[in-house]
Write a structure and sequence with these properties.
Blueprint: H1 10-32, E1 45-51, E2 54-63, E3 66-71, E4 77-80
Antiparallel strand pairs: 1-2, 2-3, 3-4
The structure holds zinc ion.
Residues 51-53, 56, 71, 73-74, 76 line the site of zinc ion.
């Protein structure tokens, strides 16, 4: 049963899984914004993506240097990229 997580405790594994879930959710938000128009930058709007809490509407505020976001389901907020 060898895998990349060999030697880690359940405590550590849960930490890494949480990082993975958040990274995947942020990637999904990033992907949802790949084809936005120039005039959508610096405006607040919503996209529907698979967040860590499941399918959810997420508020996004794309800036040139990154994207501010807030999940309307679980309330998590943060910045992607930068
Ligand atoms: Zn969420």
């Amino acid at each position: 049963m060898a895998n990349e997580f060999d030697g880690y405790s359940e405590y550590e594994l849960e930490f890494f899984r949480a990082i993975d879930r958040n990274t995947m959710a942020e990637q999904a938000i990033h992907n949802a914004l790949l084809d936005i128009n120039d005039d959508q930058y610096y405006t607040l709007f919503e996209v529907e993506v698979e967040h860590t809490c499941g399918w959810a509407r997420v508020q996004v505020f794309p800036e040139r240097a990154g994207t501010l976001y807030r999940c309307l389901n679980c309330g998590m907020a943060g910045i992607i990229g930068g």
